[in-house]
Write a structure and sequence with these properties.
four-stranded antiparallel beta sheet; about 350 residues
């Protein structure tokens, strides 16, 4: 291949013909003038073979050989993409943020729900403990008083207590505000067919030298059936009672008639000095009136003397079914076991 003729470069700034410091950035010299390239020829008509291509002149080949490729610095992007910087963080806020006015704020520290739950559990445990103590105290007191009342009346009884204040407090202090006793109606001591309904108030179990306590008020209603009067007279008056065949009442006259076949004794229940007595009004038969009155006095005295706690009769009424008496006592002393064994459990 024919070497191209050497062309001197531009004069150096020092006056020498040395190349510039960075020959890679120097533009190649323009190609030497040569014959002008002919204009492109028209394509041959169809079905005619194309003429052979004319070879390039050597000058064009040398120009392409010494032409440097474009550097990255020469290539400019058609459009620059600007990257946006991230927005700065919002400043700290010390008040409610917009839109959060209606939302509840979470409080730090003590959890109110947890505290309330603990309080409810403690209250429930205390209430359960008090209820259990109340039941236990009632059960224990009921057992003791039932035994005492059954011993006094010689019959089965039912006990109930007042609720104000709570019975547990009454049991601890030994001060019972209200106690009710009801017998089964079989008998009250020697009186067959008698039912007792007793209410005790202001009972204080405070033991002293001569008593176990006091009863502020005692009120009792004793209902004595006609059939019970017959059985009681027959049991306690063998000579006269064996002759009694029946007992009937006359509420209008307020009398009780004891029948013995064709014979009869008419007596009126009366209250005398706190005792309930039977006053004989008429006797039909061979028995003298004074003998019948003496026998009935012995019976009523036995009944009156056996009433405990200073109980006295207040009034008496004759009904269609028998006799009803009202009895009471105030500021009664509860006897010790040596005076009345029935009160030993108190």
């Amino acid at each position: 291949m024919t070497q191209p003729p050497h062309r001197p470069g531009p004069p150096d700034w020092r006056g020498r013909g040395a190349p510039p410091p960075n020959p890679g950035q120097r533009r190649p010299p323009p190609p030497p003038p040569g014959p002008a390239r002919p204009a492109p020829r028209q394509p041959p008509p169809p079905n005619r073979p194309a003429p052979p291509r004319r070879p390039e002149p050597p000058t064009e080949q040398l120009r392409r050989r010494f032409e440097r490729p474009p550097s990255p610095a020469d290539v400019r992007p058609t459009q620059q993409i600007h990257r946006q910087a991230p927005p700065p963080p919002p400043p700290p806020t010390f008040g409610p943020t917009p839109g959060s006015e209606g939302k509840p704020r979470r409080r730090r520290g003590v959890n109110t729900t947890l505290v309330l739950l603990i309080v409810l559990i403690v209250v429930a445990l205390l209430a359960g403990g008090l209820a259990a103590g109340e039941l236990y105290a009632r059960h224990r007191a009921d057992g003791i008083l039932t035994e005492v009342a059954e011993c006094v009346t010689e019959d089965g009884v039912t006990i109930s207590f007042g609720v104000n204040p709570p019975f547990l407090w009454q049991h601890i202090t030994g001060h019972y505000t209200n106690i009710s006793v009801t017998t089964d109606g079989n008998r009250v001591q020697s009186a067959d067919g008698m039912t007792a309904e007793v209410t005790l108030a202001d009972v204080r179990l405070q033991e002293t030298d001569d008593s176990k306590g006091t009863i502020g008020a005692l009120d009792a209603t004793l209902s004595w059936k006609s059939s019970g009067i017959k059985d009681t007279v027959a049991e306690n008056l063998p000579g006269v009672g064996n002759l009694i065949t029946g007992v009937r009442t006359d509420p209008a006259a307020g009398t009780v008639i004891l029948e013995a076949g064709d014979n009869s004794v008419t007596a009126k229940p009366v209250v005398e000095n706190g005792d309930l007595n039977l006053q004989v009004l008429d006797v039909v038969g061979p028995l003298p009136k004074d003998a019948v009155q003496s026998a009935l006095n012995d019976l009523t005295k036995k009944l009156n003397d056996n009433y405990p706690l200073g109980i006295k009769a207040d009034s008496v009424e004759v009904t269609d079914s028998g006799v009803v008496g009202k009895f009471s006592s105030r500021d009664a002393s509860i006897p010790k076991e040596d005076a009345n064994p029935c009160f030993a459990r108190l």
